[in-house]
Records
---
Amino acid sequence: MSGDQTAALTEQVRQAAANKQPLAISGQGSKAFLGRQVSGEPLSLAAHTGIVNYEPTELVLTVRAGTPLAEIERILTEARQLLPFEPPRFDGAGTIGGAVAAGLAGPRRFAAGAVRDFMLGTRLLNGQGEVLRFGGEVMKNVAGYDVSRLLTGSFGTLGVLLDVSLKVLPAPEEERTLQLALAADDVAALLDRWTAAALPVTAAVHDGDSLRLRLSGSSRALDAATAMIGGQQVEAGSFWQDLRDHALPFFRLEAGERLWRIGLPPHTPPPNLPGRWLSEWGGRLHWLCSSAPIAEVRTATAALQGQAVLFRGDGDPFPPLDPVSRQLQRRLKAALDPNGIFNPGRMYPEL
């Protein structure tokens, strides 16, 4: 049975809190490979589904956390709208709660923004079995922490997302893909120039030999952008969806390889590390398939003021926290989950 499962979820959390029983929060399990494995009683949101409120004219969607991404995208497509951050669906599945909890955005992140940029509000179940509301269904400035955005990317370690309210956007009239033979070193400057010229580039990926661009907008805007950018127009097929969902051949790991997600400051070349590279977001995001030691990858990335997350493979997924960040994380955990029952150790051993 699907629908509003708030009462059942609340009761399970209250019992777990009383017994100090760890809970392993899950939706459809499409992102179970991310982060550390959690030992605990399963707390499933797979049946907590449904649209709570959708106002196409207001570009606002409120939905229960267990609702499949496929269902949300179907409803939005009917209204010619979309989730701007283009959440990945690694095995074709995934829920909106998992997308927010993981905080991962797809290729459109380059132009539209991150998951947290479209968070309006949340309904949260805290570690004492209390239902809390943060934010709302309108964009507004608030003093202090924006808790809804703070929960984005927390991997369920701070609480159970029950409902999320999101800003959605109109779908483009048309999309086309261009391919240009360009050296990786030339990409960032060109993308900056095209962005400054307000060209409708909504995705960009460089595979070491060439650059692929996705243009989104009206036919007239795409014609003008194509004339300015040049290159060859190619049939995209499922390329952008496969990039989003890591279904491209690039992401098939060979023996001994790990998959790294490396974020770098703008105009920063990737570290000199062995392996296969794929670059997105104008060089701000790099995927690396490499058998290099974990410490070597993290040290080389940190030297460039970047961050290396171990996406697939054995080892600690996230780089160590600095003392200030660790203290802040502990305080947040203590405030929202004082008994430490939610996904303990999913991100860091002590949280």
Note: Residues 54 and 61 are 5 Å apart (CA to CA).
---
Amino acid sequence: MIEITLDRLEQLPEDAYVFIDIRDENAREYGMMPGAIAISMDEMTEETISAIEAIPADKKLVFYCDFGRKTRDMDVTDILKGRECYSLKGGYTGYVCAQVSEDSSLEERRERAERSIQKKFHKQLFTPFAKACKTYRLIEEGDHIAVCISGGKDSMLMAKLFQEIQKHRQCNFELTFMVMDPGYNKDNRALIESNAKALGIPITIFESDIFDAVDTIDKNPCYLCARMRRGYLYNKAKELGCNKIALGHHYDDVIETILMGMLYGAQVQTMMPKLHSTNFEGMELIRPLYLVRESDICAWRDYNNLHFLQCACHFTDTCSTCHEDGTTSSKRLETKKLIAQLKEVNPYVESNIFKSVENVNVDTVIAYKKHGQRHHFLDEY
């Protein structure tokens, strides 16, 4: 398919073309181009064909994916005979990078983002962040915390919340905002650096060769990538004198993990707010967004007109997230939808899932594991 740039499209009347987003639903949750139509091109169903035919014949069709590779190589000659079709060069990534470079001054963006945390989103963001830190004792006197930034909305907000709570001076602790580059392409790395600069986050970047190491892995490359990334983060954090690393998992990640463990893993477990490293003595992992809702993170992002990438993986246009537990983004999305459906009937279902792992009655459990050792109820019956 012929490629077309954003600059070229801006020279055309807005009603001359229509954007068609072919990414998966999980990716679209992170944002779409204004006015775009979501159409899956993986399977040519009657619904897909009807959706395309509904677009006026005089409109140019501009397809886009994550990075522009999938649409560039897509063959639509048999399906869209007579239609003028293009592939957006750079895809959604290119669009996001262009938006960031055109935004208002860096100082204005930083002040707006911080002011919104202090005022408009204080109850939704800072209050649950501070509550998690206090409830689970995530921040303690003398800590040196490596705030791990992937470049997404969650880790960027976490960094800003850490800066905010440090201003309160309730205890003395140090922060190092750490970004690992596992082999990002130049646009993805530039976007992370640009957002960090705009938000006033002094990042420390270090490089690794993780993408190259897992490039030839056919089975579960995302699982291996996530495990390797965790190891590199621990190692670098310890090298920098840190005793904790902070990751940006939020409340919705927690309840989805609980439910996925039951549905796909046949086990009852949760994503802990903090845990000791088994391979790096003296290091802890903490999750200070543990009580923060994803919808509130998205609201903060959109209010400040911030643009983040969902995933900077360079392997495929469909890889959206890396999960160390081996689950795929499709399973997580499926679980997210299931929770939303259950919420229509029971508005308390999310908090009930969360509280279920706080109210485990061992007397009514057939078997359980503790420190890797299996216990059965008949052992003490």
Note: The two ends are 69 Å apart (CA to CA).
---
Amino acid sequence: MHKIYFRFYEEINDFLPKEKRKVRFTHNYTDRASVKDVIESLGVPHTEVDLILVNGKSVGFDYLINDGDDISVYPVFESLDITNVQHLRPKPLRNPKFIADVHLGRLVRYLRMMGFDVLYKNDFVDDGIVTLSLIETRAILTRDRGILKRSEVTHGYWIRSTKVKEQVIEVLKRFDLRNIIEEFSRCIKCNTMLKSISKSEIINELPPKVSKSHTEFSRCPACKKNYWKGTHYQRMLSFIQSVRDIEF
């Protein structure tokens, strides 16, 4: 029986049992394995990890553990430049795009409301999510840890909370998005970017009260849904401002 020592940092401690969180602990093993396999055996998906130090030196996921190794594991640094050490992601998501699993429909609506590109269907299966994430360079948002442990997945995040506002805050913080919010620029229904349109072009599609009281409209070129600053607008704007004001 051999021993190695682990210390996990920041939010990746969420995947560990309480007695192993934010402390250095011993892990026993019999056969050598890659550091990636050992980390995932402890419950941490590799998509949550961006830097591994073994005895003070940066290593890749394929590093084979040795008896006595002292291993530090750090989360993805979306908002911090660590280019002088070894990133475990091919590149950070500077132009973030997402794909969400079937459990996150409400979160998707709020993220689209803030202008973020999020693919979603309520019948998505895991294989389809993974394939699209790779083809279109999208980070997977999920409540299922298992999908993030798949070896082909490169970017992803396990949503901790079940409350939608807390979920939004998690995503904004994790991917450093607060400063690139573009509210009401994207269709909440189908994810397409909206375009301005004159009232005269859509007047026959508008409720009479709306056509009398509003002059500015946007339209989705894909699903043809029309948008205006109705009673819901201030409520949605207040929500966006409330998450912008939170200290991360």
Note: The mean pLDDT is 91.
---
Amino acid sequence: MFGNSFNRFLLNFFPPPEFLTEPSFGVDISDESIKYVELLMTKNGLKLGRYGEKIIPPGIVEAGKIQNTKKMEEILSTLKKEEGIKSVRVSLPEEQVYLFHLKLDKAGLRSIKEGIELVLEEHIPILAEDAIFDYDLVEENSQSLEIQVTAMQKNVIESYMCVFKNSGMKVKSFELEAQAISRAVVKNGDLDTYMIVDFGKKRTGIFIVSKGIVMFTFTLDVGGVMLTNMIKKTFNVSFEEADRMKQKYGLQRNTENQEIFPVLLNSVSVLRDEIVRHFLYWQTHKDEDGKNNTPIEKIIFCGGDSNLTGLSDYISVSMKTPVDMANVWVNILDTSNSVPEMSFRQALAFATALGLALGDFTNN
């Protein structure tokens, strides 16, 4: 009779004894690192628990695929031992995920799953028997269903499941990275349309979220490390010095920054062009019934390198579109009353892990 929101209401006022409460851990795996975050329910609401990052040496994970199972298990086993993690929610690498929109006629449809299987190979380069898929219902009427399908190769999922199992951790769920981020940065219940840009160290994820559902994802091989390397090469300085210069000056157009500005601008313009391309496609594309997409309200930036000075202003001015830095605490805690231990910049980098951990306490 009562849903998750009612259960959460009860937990707020009558939290179970601490020994009965299983911590919620979100684990975000990239090619370079594992970020983990714990959220705890208290009588005063959610609070941040343990969090951290473990570096993954090169070659263990590449483009989201686990290449060295034994080394990955060693890293996860160490993490379990150090933090006592028993169960986790894990993000799936965007590079290995296929996302597509599908309209199914109800006439003759025995099940949605069967309807998807029949046309799966028309939309993704994987045999249906080799794929795992899930879907979200976007819209329904008396004649048809509109759904958003997420698909992935079975062997990729199985490799992740295997390393966690062998490391002694139970996987509660695998989730699309974009869905976890949107859960963290879009206020619960907000069904408007947003473009989310996850600007990380080595890559950038561009997502469009509408009606609480991830409708589009794109991964670009542009990140903060590329900007740092451009400065390093141009000014013949160490990587550490180049990174310091990047953080200090960013995209400020002033006398002190007149030499660094054009170097960064050349790289950032590649990112801007991709954002513009996908933004315009969404805004102008019509579906098979000739309907326009819901317009994008604003662009939301997150990721470890997203708070580069001047970046959000540059994108906003050049696109004439509102750009906000993400508030990753919007569904977790009121920052006007409680200051999280995690810094603002750290929080931007932990958006995926926070969104995963939040999955235990929300309906979506």
Note: Residues 1-21 have pLDDT under 50 and may be disordered.
